[in-house]
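Complex record, two chains
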Amino acid sequence: MKRYQALADDIARSIRQGLLSPGQRLPSVRQASAARQLSPSTVFQAYYLLEAQGLVQSRARSGYYVSEQARTLPPEPDAASQPDGESRPVDVSELVFEVLESAMAHDIVPLGSAFMSPALFPLAKLGRAMAHEAVHLDPRSTVDDLTPGNAELRRHIALRYRIGGVELGANDLVVCNGAIEALNLCIAAVTRPGDAVLVESPCFYAALQVLERHGLHAIEVPTHPRDGIELGALATAIARHRPKACWLMTNFQNPLGSTMPDAKKRELVELLARHELPLIEDDVYGELHFGTHRPAPAKAYDRHGLVLHCSSFSKTLAPGYRIGWAAAGRYTQQVARLKLTNTLATCVPAQLAIARYLQRGSYERHLRRLRTTLAAQQSAYLTAVAEHFPQGTRVTRPDGGYFLWIELPEDRDALRVHREAARRGISIAPGPIFSAHRGHGHCLRLNYGHPLDARVAAALRVLGGLSSVRSAPA
Amino acid sequence: MKRYQALADDIARSIRQGLLSPGQRLPSVRQASAARQLSPSTVFQAYYLLEAQGLVQSRARSGYYVSEQARTLPPEPDAASQPDGESRPVDVSELVFEVLESAMAHDIVPLGSAFMSPALFPLAKLGRAMAHEAVHLDPRSTVDDLTPGNAELRRHIALRYRIGGVELGANDLVVCNGAIEALNLCIAAVTRPGDAVLVESPCFYAALQVLERHGLHAIEVPTHPRDGIELGALATAIARHRPKACWLMTNFQNPLGSTMPDAKKRELVELLARHELPLIEDDVYGELHFGTHRPAPAKAYDRHGLVLHCSSFSKTLAPGYRIGWAAAGRYTQQVARLKLTNTLATCVPAQLAIARYLQRGSYERHLRRLRTTLAAQQSAYLTAVAEHFPQGTRVTRPDGGYFLWIELPEDRDALRVHREAARRGISIAPGPIFSAHRGHGHCLRLNYGHPLDARVAAALRVLGGLSSVRSAPA
């Protein structure tokens, strides 16, 4: 992280948290340079970056000001969700597929998509790494690099964790076909059909689909849009339902964007360990942080091998390559064996390509660029939401990832918005697909991972209009 | 298939079936040329090929003779297996993993391996196809080519089926991470935990592991080493156990090498259809035939969409690329949805690489070479088995694939042979891993997919020695 980036992050955080208000003048470059003991060019670079992110505006001969648009942003959601606390079999797949399949048309505006724009990835550079590996493939690697996966790739992944303070070695990792396979194997390792699993409310629909597929029950736990699952409610649910596992996204949760603070993560891990409860941790967005540091995974606090941590390169580097992994603690061998019976192995040339790319050392540079782009797109989308969405709307400002969670006024019907939008060539992810009891009926998840071009701008205007219509009284 | 190959296949079959005996003189080139209405050079090429396969020997100034070694080949197994016919939960994984993991040492002689020598694949040419695709990857394909898979690849796969007389279109196919994922999804589509599934006896251990993982019961059905599962016994088992599916390898079954004749396949499909029973068909070895034609899959006779046919490129073209598929008939949408929740998608650059390779048109040429090599290796391994294995041994002569099934005298213990061999750096697949009731205790599966070099020759001698030891009376 360069100095100017650290400064920009610091100021951006102050703006997001309201410490600096819209319209307020930033210190001059000279003042800031003196106060922070940085060179003027560093300060200038930081301001320039903030301007690119839409957070500040320069005025001729007058300096930099916090963007006026921020003044009109809708408030953030400020309360944890309130699910009913029941344990129930999951039956969401039909609804989820209906929504997803309506979003698969090629020319739809992908605001409901789970993917960011593929143009944001270094696919050409990665392709050159793959070209080299594919042409020089050692025939033995078609056997040696099967499960648990290519040793060099696992070493690079482990190294990134260790730099981030998480004690993992190459042998703790099982390479999988994306995080979703890793998650499937981990939940299979710790549950049997009929068991109950604690999840966030709302939670990623694919997690619910996996639970459904494994014949598991879900217990939704109150979750705050800023700092994640409520530990008190979690403890209550453990006592009441005797679940067999807990499945969370600790960083930039999909769909809320919430991130659990470090202390809360530690407390979570300790709470679960007291009950010998495994934690399935889906951390695919952790690298997409806008702040200075990658937030730690809960795995960092795991002293008992009870955290089954899963992640992938699909959201950060290589969509379509399908390379993810599990660090499954005491369940590592079990997960490796399940992997053998599920898909045997992960595409070898794709593993080698990513290992080679990581070895070349440009991953961190790519990530820095990607994070800046996403932060700027978040600002732009927030501004558009402020402009087009009705009075009473609330919207999150996550510190990373590429999803906004929009709470419409309570008398709005997100499924209706979805259906009307789909008819107009726009996809959106309606709240009920993120809930085992079809909750969050007035909420939407909005993907800001695509550049806000004229087409997206028009689509956001349409969505705002659709969201202004009250649903007929039930 | 060239004319000389067809002639060689015809003669090879006569030799394998005993119509031509060891030591018998083949017709002269001139005689055969006149009798078969082929050019002398075609006949010469055929004899030359048979000599390369070790099936005939030339004697100076005297002509070609059926190889003397064939005289000493052990007889083929000549009776169907006799499992106990019970339905039972599957619990083989521990044993299978113990055996497989002992075979994972890097320098072990891989006679127990499920893979043939990776040197037999056109990895460099395939790598060049992948290099081209990876460097020119259209970012949109990282989304468009997710499940059900790249359209061009599916079109090429469907085309191969149609040329072989199987009516399949691109939309009938779901691309998967190898056949093993396809099989997992298919069995999940048609069963629920606790259901019973009919399998061959012996059957591929990975099938048993998949059943175990899904909480299913297995019913082993008598199976003949030459022509596969016994339909009478199958009908009896259906009536007795009311299974929910049947899972077979119809061509070059692993481990027996059996292939169901066409008429029997048709009868099988009709029998199952009368009971509305889905057939999971694993056909990964079908392309590795030594005869003139690829044997048809049972899918060719499916008029009710009840055959869920699975295959892959892993055994024929691209090990480690992990590209397989399912043609799941009436369950196609269900399988595609299960695929989305299991691994979301299959590695896109690997799909594109294979599509490009297939389009280039050299797949058929590669397959011809591969089949000839495997047929020659089978002869060489059979000769070695004849030389080293004890009196009373029986061994199959499959018309394709790369496995021999060896029945030792009944008082031998295959698990002991496995353990003793592993201690000497040799892997072998013992019979009990192919059975839900640990049957086939005196049988071994021998992989002849690796060139019979001095190291393998020495290993076969050791195995023969170990197989000569009677097990202590129980």
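Note: The mean pLDDT of chain A is 93.
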